[in-house]
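Appendix B, example 12.
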Amino acid sequence: MASIGWALLLFLAQLHKLFSTSSAHADASNLTRLAVHFLCRPGQADTLLQLKKSFFFDDTSATRLQSWRDGTDCCLWEGVGCDASSGNVTVLDLNNRGLFSFGLDPTIFNLTSLRQLDLSMNELSFIQSDNIPATGFERLALLSHLNLSSAGFQGQVPIGISKLVNLLSLDISNFFDDAYFYEPSDNYYENSNSLYESNFGTLVANLSNLKELYFDGVDLSLSGDEWWISLATAVPNLEVLSLAGCHLSGPIHKSLARLHSLSVINLQQNDITAGPFPEFFMDFLSLTVLQLSDTNLQGWFPSKSFQSKNLRFLDLSGNHNLSGHVPNFSNASSLEILRLTGTNFSSAKPVPLSDLKLLKELRLDGSLVSVDFLSSLGRLGSLRQLYLGFNSVSALRSIFTWIGYHHNLTSLQIRGYNFSMTTPSSLSSFKTLSRLTMYQCNLPGPIISAIGNLIDMQTLELIDCTSYGSIPSSFGNLTSLINLYVTGSTFSGPLPAAVGNLTSLKTMEIQGRYISGTIPYTIGQLNKLRRLVLSGCNLSGSIPSSIVNLTQLTILDLSDNSLNGKSIYLLSPFLVLSYA
């Protein structure tokens, strides 16, 4: 027994010695760093932690970068990627994290090993202008992919970007909204860039490796009209050219014909000098996307076929002086999106389009909305989004019969249609609709009530419609609804208390001078609401105290009513308020 006791004492003595030695090492240096080998280089971890300090967060932020902690391996942090051999940070992807800052912290330029940098869809210019550093980007000489789109930057495009000779993809665009009517943003700040470039030719002169260029929304009006030639010369292997809404001048230059590798061309919504459709685009064998809406195209559209067999997206809408027959798609059996609204195309000689089996989105108006032309399309089995604009408020039952063939629609947008001869059941049959837009339509009561049966709908827009009676309580069945717009229409009477059932709503905009009564108390149940607009109605009485429950509101507009109450002043200090 004694020998066992001595053995136990000896064991305890050795154990004490072991712990004492470990404690001494811990006091002398960082025990964690000695015990664990990190791939990340310490200096780069410090840079990232400094960058994190420049960010702040709110309830809309998708992350708070909790994994970015001192004493841990930065190569395992959210959005960070490292080279496996050197430990250098090569990727920083913070896309759409809901980050806020007062400008881009120059510390980021210490990450000179970066090959991919994505800061898009954040708000990095909170309450500040000219916040994008003019210099610093040139230090990131290894970058192959740079994405600063919709990050809230303002001012001139940094000259340092022109030195990034290894760039393959450059995106400093705004999120570009080419949808009809409303396309709501959940984020009030909208993360909009407001950038300009006075010498586009100089900016791209050294970017000879560039494959993708996204500049949507960047003001290029000061660059003149010589930039077309500079681009075609400097970037011969360009595959994606996206310059939507850039205030471009001059006609579409023939020098672009040299860029025969282009697969995506987006020049929409530019006040380009009126001219013919650039026929050379039809010869690009790799063309998949051609967006030329609102570009002042005029004259007769070429009768030749597109040579690309991979054309998926064609948008010629908004070119009111562009005439001719519907384009020939004999080679384009891959077409998925076709937009021809606001053109002067004729359906007098219908082109067989029944081979468009992959068509998912179709937008037509004018003479193309005819029984003959739509019949030539047949049943489009893949169709999910449909926009039809009628010349006048007409009741063409046979056309709505054709619409009814497509029960799998997820988005239906109708303009100028008289629903008086349409049965409610024909509308209720669209069980898969997630978006319904009716603009300048005649909507009898039964049709309005039938909308309440579309229980999976997420966006409902009734704009400038003629209807009699109040907004029905059946709208309260639309519990999946996220966006509700009822504006400029002739609805009358009170808002139904059933709107309180729409607890998924983030946007509610109801405007109409015949809408009266009080704001229902149940509106306080819409605790996800970020935008509430009830302006220009005939509402009266007190603002319900339940409105203080709407803690997510960023915009509240109750103006042009006869309301009273102080509840609104208890809401968020970040609220944009219109109450007078």
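Residues 469-580 form a domain with the Leucine-rich repeat, LRR (right-handed beta-alpha superhelix) fold (CATH 3.80.10.10). Residues 1-35, 179-189 have pLDDT under 50 and may be disordered.
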